[in-house]
Design goal:
alpha/beta; single chain; 334 residues; globular; 5-stranded parallel sheet
Length: 334
């Protein structure tokens, strides 16, 4: 019996990886959706048995899809597949009706076991399994496409660590990946608001021909509330430097480890440095303005749910790193 499967993910790379993780020899009819609205349109026409659903997507995210499936009583079984591995994310999707939660990157053996446990797949015993002939998404992806999905997974690991420490839920944005001149960096940061002051810390990293620096921009308006979440007993002079160092230690370390693990690269971290405190973004990044180097920038604006706390994580990869990254990522397209 053929199982009709829909893979919904805004990343073409993630759709391809998910398709390749499905058990070989499974008799299926494979469909794809690029965001939640696209998935719902296909579900409403009927004929889909199993939905693999990402959470962080434009147009309509995975939570919205699950809510619509429940409200409209759409007949489909749903497995959430996400890099957002926070405990509250897993609890929320199961409360909305998801059968199970699968973390990215997908482990094919674990996925096969999960499908067997739910009676969705039974391996053939008589004949050896052969690779599935199911069609895959277009593999003509740019380096930015690859890095966005890798950053999504690494971001989820960093958020999970921070969420467990603070016992909160962190809203997961879609990472932005784009080439940018170092001199234009301050103008491109989406989270920066005119007139608002920030404090910043940076930390260099290097490994296997890949190098750059991570920057954390933390809004001054968030400092007091962040101090309370971290249980600092501060007075009017909140321990800004300690907050910056704690946050950068958590986010830089977890994000870069997650990124490096996916690339099979061990990224070594330098010593963190406070760039400045209580200044506009253009002043904090003044040293970048005087350099003309082209960078590849990964930007992640973090927002803590039910708290007025905003910070921006930037990972800046050097020009020399781009060629090395393309070599490391080639195997993912094969």
């Amino acid at each position: 019996m053929t199982t009709r499967v829909l893979i919904c993910d805004d990343s073409a790379l993630a759709r391809k990886q998910m398709a390749r993780s499905l058990p070989a020899g499974w008799e299926l009819e494979l469909h794809f959706a690029e965001h939640g609205l696209d998935a719902l349109q296909q579900l409403r026409t009927g004929g889909i048995d199993l939905l693999f659903l990402d959470l962080n997507m434009p147009e309509l995210d995975g939570y919205g899809v699950l809510e619509a499936i429940r409200a409209e009583d759409l007949p489909v079984m749903t497995l959430v597949v996400s890099g957002d591995i926070q405990p509250q994310a897993q609890e929320r999707v199961q409360a909305l009706g998801a059968m199970a939660f699968v973390r990215k990157p997908v482990d094919a053996t674990e996925l096969s076991g999960l499908l067997r446990r739910y009676g969705l797949y039974q391996p053939a015993e008589a004949a050896p399994l052969v690779p599935s002939a199911a069609p895959l998404p277009d593999a003509s992806l740019s380096l930015d496409d690859y890095l966005q999905e890798l950053a999504n997974v690494a971001m989820g690991q960093a958020s999970d660590l921070l969420a467990r420490l603070l016992k909160i839920f962190i809203r997961q944005p879609i990472p932005k990946v784009a080439p940018i001149a170092r001199s234009e960096l301050s103008m491109a940061i989406s989270a920066a608001k005119n007139g608002e002051c920030y404090s910043a810390v940076c930390q260099g990293f290097v490994g296997a021909g890949v190098s750059g620096e991570a920057l954390l921009l933390f809004s001054d308006a968030s400092m007091g509330e962040m101090a309370r979440l971290l249980h600092y007993d501060g007075d009017a002079g909140a321990p800004d430097v300690e907050i910056l160092m704690d946050m950068s230690s958590i986010l830089f370390g977890a994000f870069l480890k997650g990124l490096g693990d996916q690339l099979d690269i061990r990224l070594g971290l330098g010593h963190p440095t406070v760039l400045g405190r209580h200044q506009r973004v253009d002043v904090l990044l003044e040293h970048h303005r005087r350099q003309s180097e082209q960078l590849l920038c990964i930007e992640i604006p973090y927002e803590l749910e039910h708290h007025h706390i905003h910070c921006n994580l930037l990972v800046l990869l050097t020009e020399e790193s781009v060629g090395r990254l393309e070599q490391r990522l080639c195997y993912m397209a094969e």
